[in-house]
Structure formats: structure tokens, C-alpha cells
Amino acid sequence: MLTDLYLIRHGQPTHHWGSSYNVVPGPDLSDRGQAEAAAAAIFLADKALTQLLVSPFARAAQTAAVLAAQLGLTATLTPALREHGPDERFAQVRERLAELLIALDDAPHCRVALVTHGSPIRAALLELSQDKLDLSQHVYEGGNAAPTCGIWHVEFSDAHTRRFALVFKPS
Asked: CA-to-CA distance for 61 and 77, rounded, in angstroms?
């Protein structure tokens, strides 16, 4: 049973990549993004994570590579965590995250981290809170619910009780 879920936004990407931001592979991490990922890994070091799932986009996979190396985990590419697509509605993003969350709840891992993007993080938070979580105080660059390499922690006390906190913002 899932007890802890960490929703991690990728580190800061490069800004001049020459391809579409929301089409694979998207931009790579910038030097700052690499440093943010290293800081996030230090924060997560004592969280006893058992699984690391990752968006297939370059910036998320590169963030996860830093985390995996520091935490001794294997990063598993998971298409459901991909960036909000150019022709995709938010309801579709939320639907694919809802399916992933159901699968995670049935899986043997209890402390899971997801490395993804702003829109999937918002979708997961709204889905898990049944639209009760007020994200109006958490609006970062691009309208995201977390800054780059920001980490939300969702603690599952029981089947119906969850606590939500933005627990890490890189400096």
C-alpha cells in the first residue's frame, strides 16, 4: 500500500533548445537544473524511497538520473508522466494520472517518487485531494504548481486521509 508519494518537477531546462517544449525529447537540463536535481537528491536521501518513475522527456529523465545515482534507485520511464501534450486537454492529463495513481496504490511499493512536469503534478494533486487542495498559493513560473525541482509530499494516513505539503524548493 502506498504510504508516501513524492511529486518532483524536473530541474530547470535550457532555454534555447531549438525544439518544442512539450514534444519528446524537449530541452535538456541546464547547469542550474543539474544543481537543483543534486539538491533534491540530498533532500530525498533519508526518505527511504522504493521506486522512481519518470517522464520520458529529456529534462525529467536527466533529473531522475541524478536522483537515481544518489539514491541507489533505478529510474523507470513511465509515459503517463509525460508533459502536457500540444493537443491534449487538462482533463486527459488528469485521467492518465488518475490511472497511474490507482496502479500505484495496488503496487507493492510504499514510498514512490514521480519525476514529471507542472501539469501532471497539478493533475495528481487535484485528483488525490478530490479537488479540495487550494493551489492558489502555489503558482510558479509558467503557472506551475511547483518550482523547478520542487517536491510535493503526499502522505497517505489511510484510504481516505491524505496530507499535502510542498516540502522542497531549491534555492
From this structure: 8
Query: What are the Cα distances from residue 133, in Å, to 30, 93, 161?
Result: 31, 18, 13
- Domain 4-154+162-168 falls in which CATH fold? Rossmann fold (3.40.50)
Separation CA 128–CA 104 (nearest Å): 12
CA 75 to chain centroid: 13
Tell me the whole-structure pTM to 2 decimals: 0.96
SS3 27: coil
DSSP single-letter state for residue 155: E
pLDDT digits (tens, 9 = 90+) for 49-89: 999 999 999 999 999 999 999 999 999 999 999 999 999 99
Going by their DSSP bridges, the two strands 111-116 and 151-156 should be labelled as: unpaired
- Please give the average per-residue pLDDT across 128-152, as a whole number: 95
With cell 501532471, the residue in question is 120
Q: Please report, for residues 13, 66, 79, 110, 163, the alpha-carbon distance to residue 58 in angstroms, rounded to integers and kept in the order given.
A: 9, 12, 13, 26, 30
